[in-house]
Structure formats: structure tokens, C-alpha cells
Design brief:
The protein is of the alpha/beta class. 42% of the residues lie in helices and 11% in strands. It has a single domain, classed as Glycoside hydrolase/deacetylase (TIM Barrel, Alpha-Beta Barrel), CATH 3.20.20. It has 9 helices and 7 strands. Strands 1, 2, 3, 4, 5, 6 and 7 form a 7-stranded parallel beta sheet that branches. It is globular, with a radius of gyration of 18 Å. The N terminus is likely disordered.
Length: 272
């Protein structure tokens, strides 16, 4: 059942038709996901779990409430008169999945924000350079993906932010602006927000979370996005932290459906 909000009755019929087409593509993948579910956690996934700085068992959205909350996040604007939203990817860069995601974004002319972990930036600086070269934005996601960041003192919080900034500078140079901060595993907490503000960063939360970090199957990820997406949405997905093959598969279908529905992509708080 389609759960897209109907509160805004001015939406054109093409938006709903586009999302319906996207959901129709999901059915073909559902049986494949069920057959291959057991294989997803093995093979490449086992290797990825050993290489990633952030654990696969708890993505950035795991501790966030289910309801849509926008307080504390920048407003997503619509400068071109299209239905606009923001795509975000957490816990990378990853040597396998981030390039695949970048290829899909390029194919659909979509711009995104990559919330990078300092440890992974140091391991894969060339991928961070490609993210920037492809026109995407970077977001500070701490150095170690510390899920208990709000329990740390200010010095430790500053360390997590500053070391990540230094890793980004080393990868792409100091001319690249990092505007956003996303706290691991939750929305930005008051205990962290003050330090974030002191560093001139804007908290980046989200409004749509398909919980792809839990690897529920690509069909579930697609439905989790398309059932809740609306203009101004900030979508949370993951390119790192474990096996993200389901996310990659889902992303192609999500981008196709959003394209058919007439959506464009903007950075949070962008004015142009």
C-alpha cells in the first residue's frame, strides 16, 4: 500500500505515477532478496565488516525515532521549481560501495551529501577526492563513529570533530568547505550541539530512514524511501559500515522512481 502523504493536494499526478512505477519495480527483486538473504552476510560482507570503521549492526538511524522530525536540520530548498530533496550517505567512504553509489548518482545527475568517518577518510582519500570532484558535499561524521558521543566530555567531542576535519583537509585540501555535522546513531544531541556550533558546522539530521544499515532487503529499502518521501525530505542511506550491496541495488530503483516523479536534488540550506 502506498503511504505517500496526500496532505499537499497540489502535487501533480506525475509524482504519484512515478512513485507507483518505482514500487512496481520492487516486486521483481523481493524474491531474489529472500533467496539470497543468507548469502548477504557472508562473502564480501564478511570482508567488509572487518574493513569498516563503523559496525554494520547499528547505522546512523538506529537510535532515531520513527516519526519525521526536522528540528535542528537545515531547510532543503527548491531553487529550480522542481520537487527537491536531499540524499545523504553515512559511514564511508567504502572502497567497493561508495564508487558504485557515485556511478549511480552520476547516471541520474543527482547530488548528495556524504557523511564521512575520519578513519575511513584516511584509509581511502582517493574516494573522498572523487566525491568532491563529482560535485557532492562532505559532512563530518566523527573520526571513530562513536555512538556514545553525547556521553563524552567537550574535549573528546572536539577531538572527534577536529581529527575528522584534518583527515578531510589532507585528502582534498583546505579549500573544500565542510558545512555539516551528523552525529553517529542519532540526531545531534544538546550535549554535542554546542561543540558543533563552535566549529561552524550545521547539524544534519534526516526525515526519511529506511534503516538500510540493518540489511532488510533491497525491496524494503526502496519501499522505506518511496513510501515516505516528499518535497524537502532528507533521506538517510549508508555507503559504509558493512555490506551495502542491498543499498546499491535499491538506490538504482529509488533514483529511477524519483526521476520519473520529477524530483531534483539539492544540498541542505542551499539558496541557489
Amino acid at each position: 500500500m502506498i503511504m505517500v502523504s496526500m496532505n499537499n493536494l497540489s502535487w501533480p499526478t506525475c509524482v504519484l505515477l512515478g512513485i507507483l512505477l518505482g514500487l512496481a519495480l520492487v516486486a521483481a527483486d523481493r524474491s531474489v532478496d529472500e533467496r539470497n538473504g543468507a548469502e548477504t552476510s557472508g562473502g564480501q560482507g564478511a570482508q567488509d565488516a572487518s574493513n569498516d570503521g563503523a559496525p554494520d549492526s547499528s547505522g546512523s538511524g538506529s537510535d532515531a525515532p520513527d516519526e519525521t522530525i526536522t528540528d535542528g536540520s537545515p531547510t532543503t530548498t527548491d531553487p529550480n521549481g522542481t520537487y527537491a530533496l536531499t540524499l545523504t550517505f553515512d559511514d564511508g567512504p567504502h572502497p567497493t560501495y561508495t564508487p558504485q553509489i557515485l556511478d549511480l548518482l552520476e547516471q541520474y545527475e543527482a547530488t548528495a551529501v556524504f557523511c564521512v568517518v575520519g578513519e575511513q577518510v584516511r584509509a581511502h582519500p582517493e574516494i573522498v577526492r572523487r566525491i568532491v570532484d563529482d560535485g557532492h558535499a562532505l559532512c563530518n561524521h566523527t573520526d571513530s563513529h562513536d555512538e556514545e558521543l553525547a556521553q563524552r566530555d567537550d574535549d573528546m567531542i572536539e577531538h572527534e570533530i577536529e581529527v575528522t576535519d584534518a583527515a578531510i583537509d589532507a585528502a582534498v585540501g583546505t579549500d573544500v568547505e565542510v558545512r555539516y555535522f551528523r552525529q553517529p546513531n542519532t540526531f545531534v544531541k544538546p550535549a554535542v550541539a554546542g561543540v558543533v556550533a563552535d566549529h561552524g558546522l550545521t547539524p544534519l539530521d534526516w526525515t526519511v530512514d529506511p534503516r538500510d544499515w540493518s540489511r532488510p532487503g533491497s525491496a524494503s529499502i526502496v519501499q522505506g524511501v518511496l513510501n515516505k518521501v516528499q518535497p524537502g525530505a532528507i533521506v538517510l542511506l549508508h555507503d559504509g559500515g558493512g555490506d551495502r550491496s542491498q543499498t546499491v541495488t535499491a538506490l538504482g530503483q529509488i533514483l529511477d522512481a524519483l526521476s520519473r516523479a520529477g524530483y531534483g536534488y539539492v544540498l541542505p540550506g542551499a539558496d541557489t
